[in-house]
Protein backbone atom coordinates (compact mmCIF):
# COMPACT_ATOMS: atom_id res chain seq x y z
CA UNK A 1 0.00 0.00 0.00
CA UNK A 2 2.86 2.36 0.83
CA UNK A 3 4.52 1.74 -2.53
CA UNK A 4 1.25 2.47 -4.34
CA UNK A 5 0.90 5.83 -2.57
CA UNK A 6 4.45 6.84 -3.49
CA UNK A 7 3.65 5.89 -7.09
CA UNK A 8 0.58 8.15 -7.02
CA UNK A 9 2.64 10.99 -5.53
CA UNK A 10 5.22 10.61 -8.28
CA UNK A 11 2.57 10.80 -10.96
CA UNK A 12 1.08 13.95 -9.43
CA UNK A 13 4.51 15.59 -9.25
CA UNK A 14 5.25 14.66 -12.86
CA UNK A 15 2.03 16.07 -14.22
CA UNK A 16 2.40 19.24 -12.18
CA UNK A 17 5.68 19.92 -13.94
CA UNK A 18 3.99 19.61 -17.37
CA UNK A 19 1.33 22.24 -16.80
CA UNK A 20 -2.23 21.81 -15.51
CA UNK A 21 -4.79 20.45 -18.02
CA UNK A 22 -8.32 21.88 -18.31
CA UNK A 23 -10.95 20.88 -15.79
CA UNK A 24 -13.78 18.50 -16.69
CA UNK A 25 -16.62 16.73 -14.97
CA UNK A 26 -16.15 13.07 -13.99
CA UNK A 27 -18.68 10.74 -12.42
CA UNK A 28 -16.91 8.25 -10.17
CA UNK A 29 -18.64 4.94 -9.37
CA UNK A 30 -17.46 2.58 -6.64
CA UNK A 31 -19.96 -0.21 -6.11
CA UNK A 32 -23.17 1.43 -4.93
CA UNK A 33 -21.46 4.79 -4.32
CA UNK A 34 -21.50 7.49 -7.01
CA UNK A 35 -19.62 10.80 -6.80
CA UNK A 36 -19.51 13.57 -9.40
CA UNK A 37 -16.51 15.91 -9.31
CA UNK A 38 -14.66 18.47 -11.44
CA UNK A 39 -10.99 17.67 -11.94
CA UNK A 40 -7.94 18.39 -14.06
CA UNK A 41 -6.55 14.90 -13.41
CA UNK A 42 -6.19 12.46 -16.25
CA UNK A 43 -5.01 9.31 -14.44
CA UNK A 44 -7.75 7.08 -12.98
CA UNK A 45 -5.74 6.47 -9.83
CA UNK A 46 -5.54 10.22 -9.11
CA UNK A 47 -9.19 10.84 -9.87
CA UNK A 48 -10.11 8.00 -7.48
CA UNK A 49 -7.81 9.64 -4.87
CA UNK A 50 -9.65 12.97 -5.26
CA UNK A 51 -12.89 11.10 -4.69
CA UNK A 52 -11.47 9.56 -1.54
CA UNK A 53 -11.26 6.09 -3.05
CA UNK A 54 -8.18 3.93 -2.70
CA UNK A 55 -7.88 1.20 -5.38
CA UNK A 56 -5.93 -1.99 -4.83
CA UNK A 57 -3.23 -3.03 -7.31
CA UNK A 58 -5.39 -5.77 -8.87
CA UNK A 59 -8.46 -3.55 -9.15
CA UNK A 60 -9.15 -1.99 -12.52
CA UNK A 61 -10.85 1.09 -13.87
CA UNK A 62 -13.61 1.29 -16.46
CA UNK A 63 -13.85 4.52 -18.48
CA UNK A 64 -17.32 4.71 -19.94
CA UNK A 65 -17.47 0.93 -19.58
CA UNK A 66 -14.11 0.28 -21.27
CA UNK A 67 -11.21 -1.20 -19.20
CA UNK A 68 -8.51 1.41 -18.46
CA UNK A 69 -5.22 0.84 -16.54
CA UNK A 70 -5.15 2.78 -13.28
CA UNK A 71 -1.90 4.55 -14.14
CA UNK A 72 -2.56 5.39 -17.80
CA UNK A 73 -3.89 8.75 -18.95
CA UNK A 74 -7.53 8.89 -19.98
CA UNK A 75 -7.63 9.94 -23.64
CA UNK A 76 -11.42 10.09 -23.90
CA UNK A 77 -12.92 13.57 -24.35
CA UNK A 78 -16.23 14.80 -23.10
CA UNK A 79 -18.22 13.52 -20.14
CA UNK A 80 -16.46 10.74 -18.28
CA UNK A 81 -17.86 7.96 -16.08
CA UNK A 82 -15.04 6.34 -14.17
CA UNK A 83 -15.94 3.10 -12.44
CA UNK A 84 -13.73 1.18 -10.06
CA UNK A 85 -14.05 -2.56 -10.58
CA UNK A 86 -12.74 -4.17 -7.45
CA UNK A 87 -11.22 -7.64 -7.43
CA UNK A 88 -13.40 -10.55 -6.25
CA UNK A 89 -12.59 -14.08 -5.13
CA UNK A 90 -13.39 -16.78 -7.69
CA UNK A 91 -13.02 -20.57 -7.41
CA UNK A 92 -11.76 -22.45 -10.49
CA UNK A 93 -12.48 -26.20 -10.68
CA UNK A 94 -10.61 -28.46 -13.15
CA UNK A 95 -10.05 -32.25 -13.33
CA UNK A 96 -6.69 -31.58 -11.63
CA UNK A 97 -8.31 -29.93 -8.63
CA UNK A 98 -9.56 -26.48 -7.61
CA UNK A 99 -8.08 -23.18 -6.57
CA UNK A 100 -9.17 -19.68 -5.56
CA UNK A 101 -8.03 -16.55 -7.34
CA UNK A 102 -8.66 -12.85 -6.89
CA UNK A 103 -9.42 -10.93 -10.06
CA UNK A 104 -11.15 -7.82 -11.32
CA UNK A 105 -11.66 -9.29 -14.80
CA UNK A 106 -14.96 -8.44 -16.41
CA UNK A 107 -15.82 -11.85 -17.87
CA UNK A 108 -15.00 -15.50 -17.30
CA UNK A 109 -13.04 -15.54 -20.59
CA UNK A 110 -10.93 -12.55 -19.46
CA UNK A 111 -10.24 -14.21 -16.12
CA UNK A 112 -9.16 -17.52 -17.71
CA UNK A 113 -6.80 -15.69 -20.07
CA UNK A 114 -5.30 -13.78 -17.18
CA UNK A 115 -4.76 -17.08 -15.34
CA UNK A 116 -3.17 -18.70 -18.39
CA UNK A 117 -5.96 -21.22 -18.79
CA UNK A 118 -6.66 -21.67 -22.51
CA UNK A 119 -9.57 -23.75 -23.75
CA UNK A 120 -8.98 -26.34 -26.46
CA UNK A 121 -11.39 -27.55 -29.11
CA UNK A 122 -14.46 -29.04 -27.47
CA UNK A 123 -13.49 -27.97 -23.93
CA UNK A 124 -16.36 -26.70 -21.83
CA UNK A 125 -16.50 -24.00 -19.22
CA UNK A 126 -19.39 -23.18 -16.93
CA UNK A 127 -20.53 -20.48 -16.70
CA UNK A 128 -19.79 -19.55 -20.34
CA UNK A 129 -17.00 -17.21 -21.34
CA UNK A 130 -19.19 -14.08 -21.62
CA UNK A 131 -20.50 -14.49 -18.07
CA UNK A 132 -19.77 -11.52 -15.78
CA UNK A 133 -17.37 -12.32 -12.97
CA UNK A 134 -18.82 -11.83 -9.50
CA UNK A 135 -17.89 -12.59 -5.90
CA UNK A 136 -17.80 -16.32 -4.97
CA UNK A 137 -18.29 -17.38 -8.61
CA UNK A 138 -17.40 -21.03 -9.27
CA UNK A 139 -15.92 -21.72 -12.71
CA UNK A 140 -15.87 -25.38 -13.81
CA UNK A 141 -13.60 -26.40 -16.69
CA UNK A 142 -14.26 -29.76 -18.40
CA UNK A 143 -11.60 -30.71 -20.96
CA UNK A 144 -12.83 -32.43 -24.09
CA UNK A 145 -12.11 -36.08 -24.80
CA UNK A 146 -11.49 -37.72 -28.14
CA UNK A 147 -14.37 -39.97 -29.19
CA UNK A 148 -14.77 -42.35 -32.12
CA UNK A 149 -18.29 -42.37 -33.54
CA UNK A 150 -19.15 -45.30 -35.83
CA UNK A 151 -22.25 -45.16 -38.04
CA UNK A 152 -22.35 -48.28 -40.17
CA UNK A 153 -19.11 -48.20 -42.19
CA UNK A 154 -18.55 -44.49 -41.51
CA UNK A 155 -16.19 -43.49 -38.70
CA UNK A 156 -15.94 -39.92 -37.33
CA UNK A 157 -13.46 -38.64 -34.73
CA UNK A 158 -14.83 -35.90 -32.47
CA UNK A 159 -13.82 -34.08 -29.30
CA UNK A 160 -16.35 -33.35 -26.61
CA UNK A 161 -16.71 -32.51 -22.95
CA UNK A 162 -20.45 -33.10 -22.96
CA UNK A 163 -22.17 -34.73 -20.03
CA UNK A 164 -24.00 -37.37 -22.09
CA UNK A 165 -23.58 -39.28 -25.33
CA UNK A 166 -26.60 -37.53 -26.84
CA UNK A 167 -25.19 -34.08 -26.09
CA UNK A 168 -21.80 -35.01 -27.58
CA UNK A 169 -23.40 -36.28 -30.78
CA UNK A 170 -25.59 -33.18 -31.11
CA UNK A 171 -22.60 -30.87 -30.63
CA UNK A 172 -20.69 -32.75 -33.35
CA UNK A 173 -23.56 -32.44 -35.84
CA UNK A 174 -24.40 -36.15 -35.56
CA UNK A 175 -27.67 -35.91 -33.63
CA UNK A 176 -29.94 -38.88 -32.99
CA UNK A 177 -33.22 -38.39 -34.79
CA UNK A 178 -36.48 -40.29 -34.80
CA UNK A 179 -35.83 -43.97 -34.07
CA UNK A 180 -32.04 -43.68 -34.11
CA UNK A 181 -30.17 -45.35 -31.26
CA UNK A 182 -26.69 -45.24 -29.83
CA UNK A 183 -24.46 -47.48 -27.76
CA UNK A 184 -24.01 -46.34 -25.04
CA UNK A 185 -27.50 -44.87 -24.89
CA UNK A 186 -27.91 -41.14 -25.49
CA UNK A 187 -28.67 -40.39 -21.82
CA UNK A 188 -25.55 -42.19 -20.54
CA UNK A 189 -22.18 -40.50 -19.79
CA UNK A 190 -19.36 -40.58 -22.31
CA UNK A 191 -17.85 -44.09 -22.50
CA UNK A 192 -14.45 -44.68 -20.93
CA UNK A 193 -13.16 -46.39 -24.08
CA UNK A 194 -14.27 -43.46 -26.25
CA UNK A 195 -16.30 -45.67 -28.61
CA UNK A 196 -19.82 -44.66 -29.61
CA UNK A 197 -21.91 -46.76 -32.00
CA UNK A 198 -24.72 -44.91 -33.79
CA UNK A 199 -27.47 -46.86 -35.53
CA UNK A 200 -29.58 -44.91 -37.98
CA UNK A 201 -33.04 -46.44 -37.88
CA UNK A 202 -35.68 -45.92 -40.52
CA UNK A 203 -39.05 -47.60 -40.78
CA UNK A 204 -41.29 -47.54 -43.78
CA UNK A 205 -44.77 -48.84 -44.41
CA UNK A 206 -45.18 -51.07 -47.44
CA UNK A 207 -48.66 -51.64 -48.81
CA UNK A 208 -49.36 -54.53 -51.13
CA UNK A 209 -52.68 -55.08 -52.81
CA UNK A 210 -54.14 -58.53 -53.41
CA UNK A 211 -57.18 -59.62 -55.33
CA UNK A 212 -60.00 -61.46 -53.59
CA UNK A 213 -61.55 -63.80 -56.18
CA UNK A 214 -65.28 -63.54 -56.50
CA UNK A 215 -67.46 -66.59 -56.03
CA UNK A 216 -70.06 -67.86 -58.49
CA UNK A 217 -73.61 -68.62 -57.53
CA UNK A 218 -75.55 -70.82 -59.96
CA UNK A 219 -79.30 -70.68 -60.31
CA UNK A 220 -81.75 -72.24 -62.70
CA UNK A 221 -84.11 -70.31 -64.89
CA UNK A 222 -86.99 -71.39 -67.08
CA UNK A 223 -86.37 -68.30 -69.17
CA UNK A 224 -82.99 -69.60 -70.36
CA UNK A 225 -82.68 -72.45 -72.83
CA UNK A 226 -81.38 -75.69 -71.43
CA UNK A 227 -77.65 -76.12 -72.04
CA UNK A 228 -77.09 -72.37 -72.03
CA UNK A 229 -76.07 -69.99 -69.26
CA UNK A 230 -76.84 -66.36 -68.71
CA UNK A 231 -74.86 -64.09 -66.43
CA UNK A 232 -77.38 -62.24 -64.30
CA UNK A 233 -74.78 -60.42 -62.18
CA UNK A 234 -71.17 -59.91 -63.24
CA UNK A 235 -68.68 -60.96 -60.61
CA UNK A 236 -66.08 -58.45 -59.44
CA UNK A 237 -62.91 -59.35 -57.57
CA UNK A 238 -62.43 -57.70 -54.21
CA UNK A 239 -59.26 -55.90 -53.14
CA UNK A 240 -57.39 -56.26 -49.88
CA UNK A 241 -54.44 -54.16 -48.68
CA UNK A 242 -51.65 -55.82 -46.71
CA UNK A 243 -49.75 -53.37 -44.50
CA UNK A 244 -46.15 -54.32 -43.69
CA UNK A 245 -43.66 -52.37 -41.56
CA UNK A 246 -40.06 -52.70 -42.77
CA UNK A 247 -37.19 -51.65 -40.49
CA UNK A 248 -33.81 -50.52 -41.80
CA UNK A 249 -30.70 -50.05 -39.68
CA UNK A 250 -27.88 -48.11 -41.30
CA UNK A 251 -29.54 -48.68 -44.65
CA UNK A 252 -29.88 -52.47 -44.29
CA UNK A 253 -33.30 -54.09 -43.86
CA UNK A 254 -33.36 -56.05 -40.61
CA UNK A 255 -37.00 -56.96 -40.17
CA UNK A 256 -40.37 -56.97 -41.84
CA UNK A 257 -43.56 -57.35 -39.83
CA UNK A 258 -47.04 -57.65 -41.25
CA UNK A 259 -49.25 -55.28 -39.29
CA UNK A 260 -52.53 -56.48 -40.70
CA UNK A 261 -54.75 -56.31 -43.70
CA UNK A 262 -57.83 -54.39 -44.58
CA UNK A 263 -60.45 -55.02 -47.20
CA UNK A 264 -60.74 -52.07 -49.54
CA UNK A 265 -63.46 -53.62 -51.66
CA UNK A 266 -65.60 -56.67 -51.00
CA UNK A 267 -65.92 -59.14 -53.88
CA UNK A 268 -69.19 -59.17 -55.80
CA UNK A 269 -70.66 -62.62 -56.37
CA UNK A 270 -71.25 -63.60 -59.97
CA UNK A 271 -74.73 -64.98 -60.48
CA UNK A 272 -75.17 -67.36 -63.41
CA UNK A 273 -78.55 -68.68 -64.48
CA UNK A 274 -78.42 -72.13 -66.09
CA UNK A 275 -81.27 -72.80 -68.44
CA UNK A 276 -83.99 -75.35 -67.70
CA UNK A 277 -86.21 -74.35 -70.58
CA UNK A 278 -86.31 -77.05 -73.23
CA UNK A 279 -86.16 -75.75 -76.76
CA UNK A 280 -85.83 -77.84 -79.90
CA UNK A 281 -83.33 -77.08 -82.62
CA UNK A 282 -82.64 -78.77 -85.95
CA UNK A 283 -79.54 -80.91 -86.14
CA UNK A 284 -78.78 -79.36 -89.48
CA UNK A 285 -77.39 -80.71 -92.68
CA UNK A 286 -79.37 -83.52 -94.22
CA UNK A 287 -80.42 -84.96 -90.83
CA UNK A 288 -84.18 -84.43 -90.41
CA UNK A 289 -84.04 -84.42 -86.63
CA UNK A 290 -84.53 -81.93 -83.85
CA UNK A 291 -82.54 -82.08 -80.64
CA UNK A 292 -83.04 -80.68 -77.17
CA UNK A 293 -79.43 -81.03 -75.98
CA UNK A 294 -76.03 -81.44 -77.64
CA UNK A 295 -72.69 -82.23 -76.02
CA UNK A 296 -69.20 -83.42 -76.86
CA UNK A 297 -68.44 -87.04 -75.91
CA UNK A 298 -65.47 -89.30 -76.44
CA UNK A 299 -66.44 -92.19 -78.75
CA UNK A 300 -65.11 -95.73 -78.90
CA UNK A 301 -66.69 -98.62 -80.87
CA UNK A 302 -67.59 -102.26 -80.39
CA UNK A 303 -69.41 -105.12 -82.21
CA UNK A 304 -70.84 -108.41 -80.99
CA UNK A 305 -67.56 -110.21 -81.57
CA UNK A 306 -65.32 -107.23 -80.73
CA UNK A 307 -66.56 -106.39 -77.25
CA UNK A 308 -63.51 -107.45 -75.23
CA UNK A 309 -65.24 -110.47 -73.70
CA UNK A 310 -63.13 -113.08 -75.48
CA UNK A 311 -66.07 -114.26 -77.63
CA UNK A 312 -69.20 -113.01 -79.34
CA UNK A 313 -71.96 -111.42 -77.28
CA UNK A 314 -75.22 -110.33 -78.88
CA UNK A 315 -77.12 -109.33 -75.75
CA UNK A 316 -77.40 -105.75 -74.44
CA UNK A 317 -78.63 -104.08 -71.27
CA UNK A 318 -81.86 -103.10 -73.00
CA UNK A 319 -82.50 -106.57 -74.53
CA UNK A 320 -82.07 -105.30 -78.07
CA UNK A 321 -79.54 -107.20 -80.18
CA UNK A 322 -76.06 -105.72 -80.24
CA UNK A 323 -74.99 -104.10 -83.51
CA UNK A 324 -75.29 -100.91 -85.47
CA UNK A 325 -77.76 -98.43 -84.03
CA UNK A 326 -77.23 -99.46 -80.41
CA UNK A 327 -74.79 -97.34 -78.38
CA UNK A 328 -73.55 -97.83 -74.83
CA UNK A 329 -72.77 -95.44 -71.98
CA UNK A 330 -71.27 -95.94 -68.55
CA UNK A 331 -73.42 -98.02 -66.25
CA UNK A 332 -73.60 -95.15 -63.69
CA UNK A 333 -75.58 -92.90 -66.03
CA UNK A 334 -77.36 -95.54 -68.11
CA UNK A 335 -80.52 -95.50 -65.95
CA UNK A 336 -81.02 -91.81 -66.81
CA UNK A 337 -80.39 -92.21 -70.56
CA UNK A 338 -81.73 -95.65 -71.41
CA UNK A 339 -83.93 -95.63 -74.51
CA UNK A 340 -83.07 -92.08 -75.57
CA UNK A 341 -82.46 -91.48 -79.25
CA UNK A 342 -79.28 -89.67 -80.33
CA UNK A 343 -77.79 -88.53 -83.58
CA UNK A 344 -74.00 -88.62 -84.09
CA UNK A 345 -72.52 -87.08 -87.27
CA UNK A 346 -70.43 -89.68 -89.05
CA UNK A 347 -72.36 -92.48 -87.37
CA UNK A 348 -76.02 -91.70 -87.70
CA UNK A 349 -79.16 -92.36 -85.69
CA UNK A 350 -78.89 -94.55 -82.57
CA UNK A 351 -80.57 -95.60 -79.37
CA UNK A 352 -78.88 -95.73 -75.97
CA UNK A 353 -79.44 -99.40 -75.10
CA UNK A 354 -76.28 -100.81 -73.56
CA UNK A 355 -73.68 -100.25 -70.82
CA UNK A 356 -69.93 -100.33 -71.01
CA UNK A 357 -66.76 -99.98 -69.03
CA UNK A 358 -66.49 -96.28 -68.42
CA UNK A 359 -63.81 -96.70 -65.72
CA UNK A 360 -61.44 -98.23 -68.27
CA UNK A 361 -61.81 -95.23 -70.58
CA UNK A 362 -61.46 -92.88 -67.62
CA UNK A 363 -58.19 -94.55 -66.61
CA UNK A 364 -56.69 -94.98 -70.08
CA UNK A 365 -57.83 -91.76 -71.75
CA UNK A 366 -58.59 -89.44 -68.85
CA UNK A 367 -62.16 -88.99 -70.01
CA UNK A 368 -64.94 -88.54 -67.44
CA UNK A 369 -67.47 -91.38 -67.44
CA UNK A 370 -70.38 -89.10 -68.27
CA UNK A 371 -68.52 -87.94 -71.39
CA UNK A 372 -67.95 -91.39 -72.93
CA UNK A 373 -70.07 -93.21 -75.52
CA UNK A 374 -69.46 -96.62 -77.13
CA UNK A 375 -70.75 -96.93 -80.73
CA UNK A 376 -72.18 -100.32 -81.77
CA UNK A 377 -71.35 -101.82 -85.20
CA UNK A 378 -72.23 -105.07 -87.00
CA UNK A 379 -69.39 -107.53 -87.26
CA UNK A 380 -69.57 -107.44 -91.06
CA UNK A 381 -69.86 -103.63 -91.25
CA UNK A 382 -67.45 -102.00 -88.84
CA UNK A 383 -66.95 -98.27 -89.36
CA UNK A 384 -64.75 -97.79 -86.29
CA UNK A 385 -65.55 -94.10 -85.56
CA UNK A 386 -63.64 -92.96 -82.46
CA UNK A 387 -62.51 -89.79 -80.76
CA UNK A 388 -64.44 -86.69 -79.80
CA UNK A 389 -67.85 -86.42 -81.45
CA UNK A 390 -70.94 -84.26 -81.06
CA UNK A 391 -73.89 -86.18 -79.65
CA UNK A 392 -77.34 -84.68 -80.29
CA UNK A 393 -80.08 -85.87 -77.91
CA UNK A 394 -83.23 -85.97 -79.97
CA UNK A 395 -86.79 -85.17 -79.08
CA UNK A 396 -88.74 -85.86 -76.99
CA UNK A 397 -86.93 -84.38 -74.01
CA UNK A 398 -87.25 -86.24 -70.70
CA UNK A 399 -89.50 -84.89 -67.99
CA UNK A 400 -86.49 -84.43 -65.74
CA UNK A 401 -83.10 -83.41 -67.05
CA UNK A 402 -80.25 -85.70 -65.84
CA UNK A 403 -78.12 -84.02 -63.17
CA UNK A 404 -74.85 -84.56 -65.09
CA UNK A 405 -76.12 -82.46 -67.98
CA UNK A 406 -76.58 -79.40 -65.84
Kindly summarize this structure in a few lines.
With 406 residues, this protein is mainly beta.
The 3D shape can be described as rod-shaped
Q: How many DSSP E strands? A: 26
The span between the termini is: 128 Å
Averaged pLDDT: 90
CATH architecture of the largest domain: Beta Barrel
The rounded Rg comes to 57 Å
Tell me the domain tally: 5
Largest sheet: 6 strands, mixed, barrel
SS field, number of helical segments = 6
CATH topology group of the largest domain: Barwin-like endoglucanases
What strand order characterises the main sheet? 21-25-22-24-23-26
Classify the beta-strand content into a percent band. Answer: over 45%
Question: What is the name of the CATH class of the largest domain?
Answer: Mainly Beta
Amino acid sequence: MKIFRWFAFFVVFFLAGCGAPAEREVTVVDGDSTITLTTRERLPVLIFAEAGITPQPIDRALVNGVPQPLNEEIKTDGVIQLELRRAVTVRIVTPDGEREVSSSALTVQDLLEEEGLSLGEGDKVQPPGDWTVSESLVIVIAPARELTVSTGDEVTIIRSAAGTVGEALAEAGIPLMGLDTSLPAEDEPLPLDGQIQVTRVRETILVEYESIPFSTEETFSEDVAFGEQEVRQVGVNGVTAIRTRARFENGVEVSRVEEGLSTLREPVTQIVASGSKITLSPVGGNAPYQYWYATEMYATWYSPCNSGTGGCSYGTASGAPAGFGIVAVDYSIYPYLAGMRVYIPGYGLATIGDTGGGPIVETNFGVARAQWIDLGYDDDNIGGLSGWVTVYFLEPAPAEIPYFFR
